[in-house]
Amino acid sequence: MELNEAGDQCIDINECTRNLHKCNPSQICKNYPGYYTCECPPGHHLKANRCDDIDECKIFRPCGTYANCINTKGSYKCECKEGFRETNNSCEDFDECATDPGLCEHKCVNTWGSYRCSCSPGFTLNPDNRTCADVDECERFKDKRLCIGTCVNVPGSYKCQCPKGYKLGSDNRVCLDIDECEQNNVCLSEEVCLNTRGSFKCYSIKCPENYVKDVEHKA
């Protein structure tokens, strides 16, 4: 305290503004009537006569489960983890599939905090977990004989092909012989058609003396 200019009363000395305090640079000087204090700024605590930052993230864990806590000088901040978005001061899952339709080549499935890609039947997911590669069923399942004839790989599937003279059955797998003789004009009018496996033969028949051809039953 000190006398005022009139010398008739004591007034407080503001040690803070007169730089009469002994606070170190990290502290804040606060004046009170007759004394002063050295205090730490918000987010700090006194340690060995100096103000150290308080790591709120480590001590208080103020951020939720789906946010990362980042300590700053005198404070902290919360940042949502990957796959989450801040909504009303909390971190909520957001649908990456709806936000970015190009994330996956075929199908995108949203999951909690993330997403996963899947492929259409006949395709498999590549190591990048985004794009899809065709499965060669003919090679992968060659021991199972998918086709009786020839197996031909096509994108996302396979198809069976038969050799000349055969056609695919109703199951699109087995090969059935084509009876060419049932078709018109495969042989000359005077010939007889004989169906064989995968083909046919035309025979010219000469009747013995005193016989004529039975045109109704020549095939």
From TrEMBL:
PROSITE patterns according to UniProt: ASX_HYDROXYL (PS00010), EGF_2 (PS01186), EGF_3 (PS50026), EGF_CA (PS01187)
GO molecular function: calcium ion binding
EGF-like domain boundaries: 12-52, 53-92, 93-133, 134-176
GO cellular component, one term: extracellular region
CDD domains tied to this protein: EGF_CA
Transmembrane segments: none
InterPro entries (alphabetical): cEGF, EGF, EGF-like_Ca-bd_dom, EGF-type_Asp/Asn_hydroxyl_site, EGF_Ca-bd_CS, Growth_fac_rcpt_cys_sf, NOTCH1_EGF-like, vWF_C/EGF_Fibrillin
Alphabetic keyword roster: Calcium, Disulfide bond, EGF-like domain, Glycoprotein, Repeat, Secreted, Signal
Keyword Repeat attached: yes
Compartmental location: Secreted
Protein name in UniProt: EGF-like domain-containing protein
Species assigned in the record: Callosobruchus maculatus
